[in-house]
Write a structure and sequence with these properties.
The protein is of the alpha+beta class. The chain has 4 helices and 3 strands.
């Protein structure tokens, strides 16, 4: 029975799923907005919220924990130098999901996962 087993498997084995989530969170930190499927966004949102919460506390231990999960030292630096201070007064809820409708090709529910209060420039034509 699967009682209380709440992890989304996303059609992958555990190691591939972990790598995919690490990649999504790293991209979210670096770009502040990513386009993906709704199921992946919901799974990545949970991991990203935890990583950003660690980024609020700038200690050696927090940096090492984040560096174990996030790919690349530039992402770690951005998290602790920019995102941590930006969300220091916020008690969670660092991300939002905007639904785009079915994706062309496989009709999966597409969405945008972005950071709240991000500095990302949007195009003027609304895309």
């Amino acid at each position: 029975m699967r009682h209380r087993k709440k992890i989304a498997k996303l059609g992958r084995k555990s190691d591939a799923r972990r790598r995919m989530l690490r990649s999504l969170v790293t991209s979210l930190i670096m770009e502040e907005r990513i386009t993906t499927s709704l199921a992946r966004a919901k799974a990545a949102r949970s991991a990203a919220e935890k990583i950003i919460t660690k980024g609020r506390n700038d200690s050696v231990h927090s940096r090492r924990q984040v560096a174990r999960f996030v790919y690349g030292s530039k992402a770690v630096q951005k998290l602790f130098n920019e995102l941590g201070p930006r969300y220091a007064d916020r008690n969670g809820g660092y991300t939002r999901i905007l639904k785009l409708g079915p994706r062309k090709g496989d009709a999966a529910e597409a969405c945008i996962l972005e950071l709240v209060d991000s500095q990302v420039k949007t195009s003027s034509d609304g895309k």
